[in-house]
């Protein structure tokens, strides 16, 4: 739904030289960062932080994690994070009291004002006590506790301590109930392991919804037993060609369960009635002329539509909704509805009149791109705003009726937009989105006539026309995902770019320990463990077998400085030292 332009791949460059990080880019600004004090480095920023001067808690090898019975799974999650890096056993034990040592995860005793998703974290010399009203609230508090520990605590191998947490009382709760991210697995298929890895990354920033864009013109990514060719044929390719892929029902349920264990709700999307070429190619009867079109591997939009006048269309849609809804415990089913340019307005209304009741029939509430809400007066339906303007009559009317709007303005929240003209991945039809652009907007006032009381939350979509690997996801999502997450969680009164960029820069050691290959924006003072980040400009690439203005095929190899690199996807190289740009186009071998 989100493209209007060809992909232009130019190169941002990362290299290590003489202990400093050198980036060939389009600016010349040296930035030096020192490690931020832990209480000033949490993202999203908590609602209230009261430091306890002179107090520090040190996690020791004898520490235990105590939980109330309903919170045992949260305790197991925390232990799973801490054990590999600390080497401590950290047994998880149930308790009915208030422990005076170790880490206590307790349901009950928290302020009522924090609601179902908030928490209160108290750190003293002897103990860390985390209280909440629900396991979800405790899980959110655990993410804050992780960030109060050194970033290397995220490592999967033993690290040296000490493992200290600053004394404080943090009382925290979300601004919006819905803080989401979307992953498009249709344009390029992403396997289960990649999706689970992204879920783990989302959890760290208190994201609680994962929207999976399962179908589009270029691929159908989930098995539907009653229409098997959707997956086996419709899922057999992807943008640019290639094998594509799809999830079995068991694999989809594995993703849903992994998300649920991290208190993330999966929202499946089947985009209708447009963006349906993969389905139309799989079954000729779904076409008005009875002729199946060819599979598509380009990135065009707006040309496909289910045949609104055929009864088989609605049997098809009902079967799809019924089977996917049965696999999905969450309350929402996303029906797309965007860019239906090949469907007349009357046919679009007719289609939605038939389809939206089917969503309710199978126990779900309708969510869709904001166009769809013009066809219904159901105030439980959730329009997802993806426009690039701050005024939209359809969304304004829906808000006036009582619908809650999910904010995903493409020129602010789309993680597939290029950071600038030099970044190698992404599109630019909605403009460039640097980190400050992603952070400096207010979901509660962004669209005229849609007050904060009418906003359900925010979502950061990641479309994958140019996103092929897990490293590509890292590069486009980080650091901007953290910016959108803070907009969804933190009170607007805390909003400050100058403060946020420092807290964001402090995430670098954590992301490095987690293996996240993020984009080192020159707008952010990154904590590089005491080194200096320098940004400069050059038109003379370093010597080596790599060269600019060369068309490299996937699998092509080049050498530089005694290292060999393999090309991850076809592209024409640009001036600048390209091979070390691992998150984008090259893999060191």
Automatic annotation (TrEMBL):
**Organism name:** Saccharothrix variisporea
Family, according to the entry, reads as follows: Belongs to the glycosyl hydrolase 20 family.
UniProt entry keywords in alphabetical sequence:
Glycosidase, Hydrolase, Signal
Q: Which residues form the signal peptide?
A: 1-35
Q: Which GO terms describe its cellular component?
A: extracellular region; membrane
**Residue positions of the active site:** 339
Record EC number: 3.2.1.52
Task: Note whether Hydrolase occurs among the keywords.
Answer: yes
* Record lineage: Bacteria, Bacillati, Actinomycetota, Actinomycetes, Pseudonocardiales
| Protein's name according to its UniProt entry | beta-N-acetylhexosaminidase
Alphabetized Gene3D superfamilies for the sequence: Carbohydrate-binding module superfamily 5/12 (2.10.10.20), Chitobiase/beta-hexosaminidase domain 2-like (3.30.379.10), Glycosidases (3.20.20.80)
Query: What Pfam families would the database entry show?
Result: CBM_5_12, Glyco_hydro_20, Glyco_hydro_20b
């Amino acid at each position: 739904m989100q493209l209007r332009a060809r992909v232009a791949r130019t190169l941002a460059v990362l290299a290590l030289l003489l202990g400093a990080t050198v980036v060939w880019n389009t600016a010349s600004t040296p930035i030096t960062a020192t490690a931020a004090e832990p209480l000033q480095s949490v993202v999203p920023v908590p609602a209230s932080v009261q430091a306890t001067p002179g107090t520090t808690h040190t996690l020791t090898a004898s520490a235990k994690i105590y939980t109330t019975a309903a919170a045992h799974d949260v305790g197991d999650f925390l232990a799973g994070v801490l054990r590999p890096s600390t080497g401590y056993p950290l047994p998880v034990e149930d308790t009915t009291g208030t422990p005076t040592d170790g880490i206590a995860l307790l349901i009950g005793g928290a302020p009522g004002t924090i609601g179902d998703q908030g928490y209160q974290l108290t750190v003293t010399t002897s103990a860390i006590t985390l209280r909440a009203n629900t396991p979800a609230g405790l899980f959110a508090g655990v993410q804050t506790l992780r960030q109060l520990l050194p970033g290397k605590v995220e490592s999967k191998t033993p690290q040296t301590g000490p493992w200290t947490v600053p004394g404080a009382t943090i009382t925290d709760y979300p601004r919006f109930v819905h803080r989401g991210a979307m992953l498009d697995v249709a344009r390029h298929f992403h396997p289960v392991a990649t999706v689970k890895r992204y879920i783990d990354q989302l959890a760290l920033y208190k994201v609680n919804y994962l929207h999976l864009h399962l179908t589009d013109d270029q691929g159908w990514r989930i098995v539907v037993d009653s229409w098997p060719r959707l997956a086996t044929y419709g899922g057999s390719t992807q943008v640019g060609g290639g094998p594509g892929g799809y999830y079995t029902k068991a694999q989809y349920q594995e993703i849903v369960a992994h998300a649920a264990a991290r208190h993330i709700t999966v929202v499946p999307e089947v985009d209708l009635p447009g963006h349906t070429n993969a389905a139309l190619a799989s079954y000729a009867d779904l076409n008005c002329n009875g002729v199946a079109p060819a599979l598509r591997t380009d990135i065009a939009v707006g040309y496909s539509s289910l045949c609104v006048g055929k009864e088989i269309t609605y049997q098809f849609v009902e079967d799809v909704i019924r089977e996917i809804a049965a696999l999905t415990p969450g309350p929402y089913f996303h029906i797309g509805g965007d860019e239906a340019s090949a469907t007349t307005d009357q046919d679009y209304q007719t289609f939605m009149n038939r389809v939206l009741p089917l969503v309710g029939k199978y126990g779900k509430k309708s969510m869709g791109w904001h166009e769809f809400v013009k066809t219904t007066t159901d105030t439980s339906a959730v329009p997802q705003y993806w426009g690039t303007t701050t005024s939209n009559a359809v969304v304004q009317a829906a808000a006036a009726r009582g619908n809650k709007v999910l904010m995903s303005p493409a020129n602010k929240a789309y993680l597939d937009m290029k950071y600038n003209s030099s970044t190698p991945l992404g599109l630019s039809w909605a403009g460039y989105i640097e980190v400050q652009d992603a952070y400096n907007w207010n979901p509660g006032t962004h669209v005229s006539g849609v007050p904060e009381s009418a906003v359900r939350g925010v979502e950061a979509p990641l479309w994958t026309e140019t996103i092929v690997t897990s490293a590509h996801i890292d590069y486009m999502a980080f650091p901007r995902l953290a910016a959108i997450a803070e907009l969804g969680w933190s009170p607007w009164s805390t909003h400050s770019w100058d403060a946020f960029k420092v807290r964001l820069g402090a995430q670098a050691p954590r992301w490095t320990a987690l293996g996240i290959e993020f984009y080192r924006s020159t707008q952010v003072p990154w904590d590089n463990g005491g080194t200096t980040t320098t940004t400069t400009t050059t038109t003379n690439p370093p010597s080596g077998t790599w060269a600019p203005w060369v068309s490299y095929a996937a699998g092509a190899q080049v050498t530089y400085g005694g290292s060999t690199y393999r090309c991850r996807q076809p592209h024409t190289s640009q001036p600048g030292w390209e091979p070390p740009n691992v998150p984008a186009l090259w893999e060191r071998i």
